[in-house]
């Protein structure tokens, strides 16, 4: 299982102050073949989560900035999973691991 989170440095330099208080997280679970994104909601009481299966991944977009990146994972049925203000290195690791998994399982990505 891989877990990545928003970074404070990236949030500061991309002027996304809200992700300092409510950071985004992405969990990639190879055992259950699911991707889960979570983010604390604005009231700081609960957590919003989205989960998709590897089989419905359609496209992976990375928007790189000077410090950090945003990653958007598009799915066939459930729209888009987005994680904002993560490090560029983490975004490349996520993309590489999902593409590597895709090449092993012969899914269309």
Description:
- The chain is of the alpha+beta class and 109 residues long.
- Helix content is 26%, strand content 43%.
- The protein has a four-stranded antiparallel beta sheet with strand order 1-2-3-4, with no helix packed on it. A three-stranded antiparallel beta sheet has the order 5-6-7.
- Strand 6 and strand 7 (79-86) form a beta hairpin.
- The protein starts with a strand and ends with a helix.
Task: Give the SSE layout.
Elements: E1 2-5, H1 8-13, H2 18-21, E2 24-29, E3 34-40, E4 47-53, E5 57-64, E6 69-75, E7 79-86, H3 88-105
Antiparallel strand pairs: 1-2, 2-3, 3-4, 5-6, 6-7
What are the secondary-structure elements, in order, as H or E?
A: EHHEEEEEEH
Distance between the termini: 21 Å
Radius of gyration: 14 Å
Globally, the shape reads globular
Main sheet summary: 4 strands, antiparallel
| Beta-strand content estimate | 35-45%
Number of strands: 7
The secondary structure category is alpha+beta
Q: How do the strands of the widest beta sheet line up side by side?
A: 1-2-3-4
Unreliable segments (pLDDT under 50, ≥5 consecutive)?
none
Q: Helix proportion of residues, in percent?
A: 25-40%
Provide a quick synopsis of the model:
The chain has 109 residues and is α+β, with helices and mostly antiparallel strands. The protein has 3 helices and 7 strands, in the order βααββββββα.
For this entry, give a set of tags.
3-stranded antiparallel sheet, alpha+beta, 109 residues, 4-stranded antiparallel sheet
